[in-house]
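Module 6 notes. Inverse folding takes a fixed backbone as the condition and produces residue identities as the prediction. Think of it as a translation problem where the source language is geometry and the target language is the twenty amino acids. Below is one complete input and output pair. Work through it position by position during the lab.
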């Protein structure tokens, strides 16, 4: 190793978000549309979740989890003013990959024609984007890569129970994708300041899709031929998840602020995972944050799981709500349970 390589290998870099992009399918599904499929109402959905409409992939529109991710990624790459050949690692966060295996990251590698680029799927559901961003940050901090493409994308609509039986879950989720190009930043006070990740697997089944899986193989399901077996639909213990979410959001945001000697007043913009408007409002009230300090768009897209933070971040940035020097807080909680936060000093 020569002197320069040696020096480079001990320098710790920071990482910054250099470009953001998003994509949602054109097909809008209003609460009213859902009342034709199940016993629900616009009032119930708006009051309990804040959602007015969501986007669903339409059969034949060409979208898939990876395809939507690529659309968001192309926008992020263009805005980062680099070419896809500059991407050295793809991190793909999703709970709804195109295939059981391989992951969707490799499909993105192929669709973007990035030669031999490593690709990794991150399976952390609603916290997936935060986990993926934290992972990108570590690869950049270590000096291994200069540009990492981080994608959060979900195709929920094809796998939900749109009968009254599944209404507590199916009205919430929507399809879409968001992406960020994460790049090397030489100023250690700029970009991602810290990331904070947690999990608590004892609650794994409180928000889960159990079968088909290696725990519940397809032949076993077919052989049982039990119409009551709906383990192939997502299950959520809604109130339990809600109660845990508000506690973990608060804890992990405070953890991030403390690490950086910041207070809630220093938050320029909090972008919480869009799980339920009532959760965001609870956190806002708890911290005494003003409306302009919290970004929500769940009314338009529902809960897009791993895609919700990058979609919201992209929209907030496009609306001019994020400026140089702003302290941005990203926070997520979801299935696992997993939760996390990222504190950014926008460069
Ligand atoms: O993104 C990952 C993390 N996810 C979350 O954080 C989500 C957390 N949980 C929630 O957002 C909420 O618990 C839900 C939105 C899922 C449910 O809201 P809730 O206020 O907790 O309602 P509930 O489950 O207590 O149900 C209240 C009533 C029930 O009827 P009864 O038993 O009181 O007669 C449900 O059957 O509302 C009924 N209900 C519905 N009614 C109309 C449940 N879903 C619906 C629906 N339309 N879609």
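Target side of the pair, the amino acids:
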């Amino acid at each position: 190793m020569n002197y320069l390589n040696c020096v480079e290998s001990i320098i710790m870099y920071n990482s910054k978000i250099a470009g953001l992009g998003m994509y949602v399918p054109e097909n809008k599904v209003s609460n009213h549309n859902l009342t034709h499929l199940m016993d629900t109402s616009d009032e119930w959905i708006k009051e309990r979740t804040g959602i007015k409409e969501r986007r669903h992939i339409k059969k034949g529109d060409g979208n898939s989890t990876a395809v939507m991710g690529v659309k968001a990624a192309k926008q992020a790459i263009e805005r980062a003013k680099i070419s896809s050949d500059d991407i050295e690692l793809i991190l793909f966060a999703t709970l709804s990959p195109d295939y059981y295996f391989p992951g969707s990251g490799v499909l993105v590698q192929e669709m973007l024609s990035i030669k031999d680029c490593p690709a990794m799927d991150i399976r952390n559901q609603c916290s997936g984007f935060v986990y993926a961003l934290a992972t990108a940050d570590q690869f950049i901090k270590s000096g291994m890569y200069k540009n990492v493409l981080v994608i959060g994308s979900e195709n929920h609509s094809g796998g939900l129970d749109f009968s009254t039986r599944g209404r507590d879950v199916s009205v919430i989720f929507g399809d879409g994708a968001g992406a960020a190009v994460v790049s090397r930043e030489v100023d250690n006070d700029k970009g991602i300041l810290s990331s904070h990740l947690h999990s608590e697997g004892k609650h794994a089944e409180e928000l889960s899709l159990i079968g088909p899986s290696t725990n519940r193989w397809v032949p076993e399901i077919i052989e049982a031929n039990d119409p009551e077996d709906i383990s192939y639909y997502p299950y959520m213990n809604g109130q339990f998840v809600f109660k845990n979410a508000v506690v973990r959001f608060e804890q992990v945001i405070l953890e991030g602020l403390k690490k950086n000697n910041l207070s809630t007043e220093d938050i320029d913009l909090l972008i919480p995972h869009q799980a339920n408007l009532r959760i965001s409002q609870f956190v806002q009230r708890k911290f005494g944050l003003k409306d302009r300090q919290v970004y929500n768009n769940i009314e338009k897209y529902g809960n897009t799981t791993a895609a919700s933070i990058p979609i919201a971040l992209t929209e907030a940035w496009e609306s001019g709500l994020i400026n140089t020097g702003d302290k941005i807080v990203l926070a997520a909680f979801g299935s696992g349970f997993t939760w996390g936060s990222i504190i950014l000093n926008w460069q």
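Reference fact for the lab report: Residues 238-259 form the longest helix (22 residues).
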